[in-house]
Amino acid sequence: EPVLALDAVEKSYNRGKPGEVRVLRGASLAVAAGEVVALVAPSGAGKSTLLHIAGLLDTPDAGQVRIAGAEMGAASDRKRTAARRADIGFVYQFHHLLPEFTATENIVLPQLAAGAGRAKAEARALDLLDRMGIGARADHRPAALSGGEQQRVAVCRALANAPRLLLADEPTGNLDPATSDRVFDALMELVRGTGLAALIATHNLELAARMDRVLHLEAGRLV
Ligand code: ADP
Ligand code: ADP
């Protein structure tokens, strides 16, 4: 049973109107637990659309979106939100950390929102920061961290509630090549250590080649 399965997903913007853009045209993919899959797509090919549908932030026009076997593409908003919060972590190109909170607090807050106790949440935050190689920066606010450190914190935050699926959109895309490489290595090691499924969009073919599989989004399908 894959953690994420898209089956014949269709998605258009301005559907049925002049100017309709058919973005996904029978997109299918599966990502299993413990698997790290690269998503490579030229700009405008529909990478964000695909990640939003996989992340239950948007609905497909047709086709299925299954998270751990449960069909979510046509589920109610309430069910989709619950599944997103419980099962899916997101990392973006820009970190989106809360500027007034420390690295630790940025990882603690989503855990408190999910019902965890503070002591446990803090211990988990520190463990994640250690594993991403920035335990020493735990008490710094985002503005006091380098770009690479900020992205490392963003990875920890995405994993705060132990999701089954990590979706990342150019997670090292705004970093210089050497920093990008190091952050990517840390991310891979952490992901490997947790056994979660990961779908990581990147323009960097060298990083893509280091993942388990590379999927190319072309003409609305994955090849
Ligand atoms: P990518 O992330 O690969 O750059 P997107 O998924 O953002 O691609 O967009 C795919 C295509 O859909 C592009 O041609 C884009 O212009 C179009 N598109 C994206 N969002 C909308 C929207 N809200 N309304 C109309 N067209 C859109
Ligand atoms: P919260 O529990 O903070 O209300 P949500 O359930 O709305 O969060 O969203 C869960 C995840 O989805 C968060 O990591 C958030 O970053 C991401 N997310 C929510 N809305 C969007 C959006 N419109 N575009 C991209 N990511 C989003």
UniProtKB/TrEMBL annotation:
InterPro entries: AAA+_ATPase, ABC_transporter-like_ATP-bd, ABC_transporter-like_CS, ABC_transpr_LolD-like, MacB-like_ATP-bd, P-loop_NTPase. Residues 4-223 form the ABC transporter domain. GO terms for biological process: lipoprotein localization to outer membrane; protein localization to outer membrane. Gene3D superfamilies: P-loop containing nucleotide triphosphate hydrolases (3.40.50.300). It comes from the Bacteria. GO terms for molecular function: ATP binding; ATP hydrolysis activity; transmembrane transporter activity. PANTHER family: IMPORT ATP-BINDING PROTEIN, LIPOPROTEIN-RELEASING SYSTEM ATP-BINDING PROTEIN LOLD. This is Lipoprotein-releasing system ATP-binding protein. The lineage of its organism: Bacteria, Pseudomonadati, Pseudomonadota, Alphaproteobacteria, Rhodobacterales.
